[in-house]
Amino acid sequence: MFYRCFSTGVHKRKLIPFDADYLTKVTETIGQNPDKDYYESIYLYNDEHFKRFQEKNSLAGITDVKTDRLVFDFDSKNDVTKALNDAQTLVDRLLVTYEITFEAVRIFFSGSKGFHVEIHLNESLSRPEFESIVENVAGDLETFDTAIKDQQRLFRFPLTKNDKTKRFKIPLSIDQLFDLSLEDIQKLSLHNDEPSFYDILSSYITIDLPKEFKTMKKESKKEKTKTVETISEQTDIPDMSRKPKHLTPAKYVIQEGYFEEGERNEACMILASTYRYLGYNKEHAYNMLKATLRLRSHRLGIPEYDKEELWRTIVEPVFSPLWKGGVYSEEEGLLAKTIKRYKLDKISIQDVGLVSLTSVADYFKDFAINIDKNTIRLGIKEIDEKVRVTTSMLVCLLAAPGAGKTSISLGILNTISNNDEKAIFFSLDMGVPQVYQRIIQRHTGEKADKILDNYKNNNIVKINEYNEALMREYKNVKFCFRSGMTTEHIKESLIYERDVTGTSPKLIVIDYLECIQGPFSDSNANKALIATQLKDIANEFGVCVFLLVQPAKQSGDPSQELTSYTQIKGSSVLGEAASVVFTMYRPGFSPKSPEDDKYLTINVVKNRMGELSSTDLGWTGLTGNIHSLSTEEKRDLNSLRAAIAAATQQGDADELYAQKTSSKKYGGDLY
């Protein structure tokens, strides 16, 4: 159990269990006497701390505390405008440099001499971790209050009154922080009953800690300030160590506001088109562009760009369905100027992922010589003959829910393992019992009830038979059932496997896209980012990423044929990123005629290295196994399709389908 310190005034402290009832207890206390000032601790206390507090009525001497939030405090007794400016600078850093999602950045005017910026986390940090992060992110800002790191530090509770100034601690939106004057903000803080305050508070979200924060090395504020000043004096270039991986150095420099008079529109167009390509939605791109223009305004000492004009002339055109532009070339225009202006061509190519043509040629030569090793055999003869799936590819399997994607994947994993090659199955949708039962059925043909009865009755012979068969058939496959996976988690799993065993897997199967977590509130933006990250993983580790995806809901059930990768649900970036896209459907699927559900068709709707095709196969629903069709089975499938087409044309597909497929005159040779 964790506790948070809550205090009426700064001395009347108590530890309250930090559970689902915490806010209710706190607000009830505040409601009894709203004119008092109330505080809560940044840090959390454990049961041992609680026991000590009960005995001594003091938290003094307790150091092994944790916190579930990052808090940045900016105070200036003589000039609160300085604190406002530093809060703006920090928010720009969080949004642009560290790509924190907007809904996670909590901004407050303290009601007195400063501003607080908070990020609430899904995990706890030790005090040293907290200190390291806030010092690295904000330690160079003049009004940053280093006392924030004290383990007994209390913060005024939102919407409660400062007894001295008679103003309230109020939440601010990002736009309010940058658009309102200090006087306007102070006027707002004279009362706490604005409906907008509650809208802002309810919009905040809690996030996972960005990995780069955890890996920051501890630096003192003095050292940090000196480093920043030296960079500014010597090179007048932003700190390139903060560059996100998805931006080139030139685009990162522009994003940080380093462009001159007359270059604004081109700079914004470059960034907007890049954000669209990366899968950001309009609102995210708009806010990031505003942050860039604010940074430029501060650097050059010029007025900010009109926001309405930014939306109208940059954001709307780039995010319009009619936009035909791509990503700007670094060989011309502002990007080329920026590279030359800041000597970005001197940056190591290893830092930006660039390689020479000679290196590419050498890489391909090695790849081609070892093409047999680099080819993934799916175990489906007709498909392996038509499509070459290789390592370093992102491959998508698109099918409706329930069409058999997982069964097909298990068959591919079985083939890989029996070829003495390694694979990992990230089962993000189904849990351990469902997957294990599915595998047993695949290799025994037994129904679920029989399998479960054997376990319930402790049939040791059958249980050992199951285990031995599966150990034999999947000996080279690792399974991951962790929920809330991100692409970073997937990457970490590959690194762990490589470091522990000395070799990387040849194939990873991810079941399925919708279950991968992303940083954005917009699902399409997440999918676009995930697509590019998975493609990077395929290239970096030389692994084939086999991703299961679903179509938009309007595409129907497993009996509906999918003929284009544009039918993938969500961002179009995913289809573009994949080297191969398979679609799959079962033409005989019908709850009213399950006996006809014995066929499966796989279409190749995208194939960067070859032709498109369509392949009909036999399907066994219980085991999920597939097989080549005999001449008779092909004839039966053609008759089934003809019957379905005739029924559909008459407008009553469900009713007529059942009639026609059971009638001799509509293909009696089906049975």
Explain what the structure shows.
This protein is α/β, with parallel strands linked by helices and 671 residues long. It has 4 domains: 3-214, DNA primase, PRIM domain, CATH 3.90.920; 235-352, no CATH class; 371-629, 3-Layer(aba) Sandwich (Rossmann fold); 630-671, no CATH class. The protein is 44% helix and 16% strand. It has 27 helices and 19 strands. The strands form 4 sheets. A 9-stranded mixed sheet has the order 13-12-14-15-11-16-17-18-19. Mean pLDDT is 84; it is low at 217-235, 348-352 and 659-671.
Keyword list:
16% strand; 9-stranded mixed sheet; Rossmann fold; 4 domains; 4-stranded antiparallel sheet; 671 residues; disordered C terminus; globular; DNA primase, PRIM domain; 19 strands; alpha/beta
Write the layout of secondary structure elements.
Blueprint lengths: L2 E6 L3 E6 L4 H11 L5 E8 L1 H10 L9 E10 L4 H18 L8 E4 L4 E13 H12 L15 E3 L13 E3 L1 H6 L2 H7 L6 H9 L7 H4 L6 H14 L14 H7 L8 H15 L3 H19 L6 H12 L14 H9 L7 H4 L4 H13 L1 H4 E2 L4 H6 L2 E2 L3 E5 L6 H14 L4 E5 L4 H13 L3 H9 L3 H14 L3 E4 L6 H15 L5 E5 L11 H19 L2 E6 L22 H6 L2 E6 L13 E9 L5 E8 L4 E3 L3 H19 L3 H9 L10
Parallel strand pairs: 11-15, 11-16, 12-13, 12-14, 14-15
Antiparallel strand pairs: 1-2, 1-3, 3-7, 4-6, 5-6, 5-8, 9-10, 16-17, 17-18, 18-19
Helix pairs in contact: 3-12, 10-14, 11-12, 11-13, 12-13, 26-27
Q: What's a concise summary of this model?
A:
This protein has 671 residues and is α/β, with parallel strands linked by helices. It has 27 helices and 19 strands.
Uncertain parts: 217-235, 348-352, 659-671
Q: Which term fits the overall shape?
A: globular
In total, the number of strands is 19
Largest sheet: 9 strands, mixed
CATH class of the largest domain: Alpha Beta
Strand order of the largest sheet: 13-12-14-15-11-16-17-18-19
Average pLDDT metric: 84
Q: Report, as a whole number of angstroms, the end-to-end distance.
A: 65 Å
Strand content: 15-25%
Helix content: 40-55%
Give the CATH architecture of the largest domain.
3-Layer(aba) Sandwich
